[in-house]
Design brief:
The protein has 14 helices and eleven strands.
Length: 343
């Protein structure tokens, strides 16, 4: 298989996509510029290679009118709400792409007064997509600070080892700005009575101690009614009768962020028998976001398995003071429309 240097691939993408030349015109240009034979058919392969290397990105725009309507209706700052103009299953990738773009913007802003910006990664498929997109943007970014990566949980999706945020860190291999990686070497969840003991274990203790150093947290959320949500899946897979979803349902479980459940009004303080190991609790996040230059990006997009949106899980985050655990909400078009009253 032929190996193509970055400049050669970039020239092909630029001429074909930006200059809107035909494949024949691009092959003629490359032959003249790089002094090597290039067939017309090779151009399409070069575009695909450029996509994989991050030179070409397909990214939906933002719906500014919906953002303004939501900010007025819920009385939130306009710059905190981000509505990606995409719906359906493809929305996941576009929402993740924008969340990554937002994280990059915050990193650059923080670089004005910090030598090292630290990113906290919560587990799950949506955060995995976002993290991968962010790594690509960092790879080709300029004037960036040093980056520290912190896993903020082990991820409770035990049937998908790739949902553990420590595994996301390999996306950043070869990026010179990344200077430190802080894993989270704890079980996904433990019996409630063992939680404090596990927190004090070597390795785990250091992860908890260093969590306040994080500047930007990336997390997603789930709706309680979603049968594919991480807490329901964990309950089915754990085989542990002590972990009873019914306890959460009876307490008014509405949704969960960072594997932590909440009702329509506040974080839930009930004991279903087991507790996810997370560097922060929801009440920690409400204090975290009140600090200067601290950010939590909550990403809301359709379920990857059934496509259901998570509107009812997002609504309390916009209305309840005790659930102000975010500085930025990124959502798809359908979720945004459902959050507004009928016209």
């Amino acid at each position: 298989m032929a190996s193509y240097e970055d400049r050669f691939v970039l020239d092909a993408c630029t001429e074909f996509l930006d200059e809107e030349k035909t494949a024949t015109e691009v092959s003629d240009y490359l032959e003249k510029e790089h002094k090597r034979p290039v067939s017309r058919e090779q151009i399409y392969r070069l575009i695909r290679i450029g996509r994989r290397r991050g030179f070409v990105t397909v990214q939906a725009g933002l719906d500014y009118e919906l953002e303004k309507e939501l900010s007025r209706y819920y009385q939130k700052e306009r710059k905190r709400i981000h509505v990606v103009n995409a719906a359906g299953q493809s929305a996941r990738r576009h929402v993740a792409e924008h969340a990554a773009e937002l994280a990059l913007t915050l990193i650059k802003e923080l670089a004005d007064h910090k030598e090292c910006v630290r990113i906290g990664l919560v587990g799950g498929g949506t955060v995995g997509l976002t993290t991968k997109a962010l790594a690509k943007k960092l790879r080709f970014g300029s004037k960036l600070p040093e980056i520290g990566l912190h896993a903020m949980s082990s991820g409770v999706e035990v049937d998908e080892p790739g949902s553990d945020p420590s595994t996301f860190m390999h996306f950043f291999d070869g990026i010179p700005q990344v200077i430190e990686r802080v894993p989270f070497p704890a079980p996904p969840a433990v019996l409630t009575r063992d939680y404090e003991r596990v927190k004090r274990l070597p390795g785990v203790r250091e992860s908890f101690r260093r969590a306040p150093e994080v500047d930007v947290v990336l997390t997603s959320l789930s709706a309680s009614l979603d049968q594919h949500g991480p807490l329901r899946r964990f309950a089915k897979l754990s085989g542990n009768p002590a972990y009873k979803v019914k306890v959460l349902d009876d307490a008014g479980w509405n949704g969960d962020v960072y594997y932590l459940p909440y009702s329509q009004r506040r974080p839930l303080n009930v004991d279903p028998g087991m507790k996810p190991m997370t560097a922060f609790q929801l009440r920690d996040l409400t204090k975290f976001v009140q600090q200067p230059n601290k950010h939590v990006i909550v990403i809301a997009c359709p379920c990857r398995e059934c496509g259901n949106v998570k509107t009812e899980a997002v609504r309390p985050l916009l209305t309840q003071k005790e659930l102000m655990i975010w500085t930025h909400l990124v959502m798809d078009l359908t979720t945004a429309r459902e959050l507004l009253p009928p016209a």
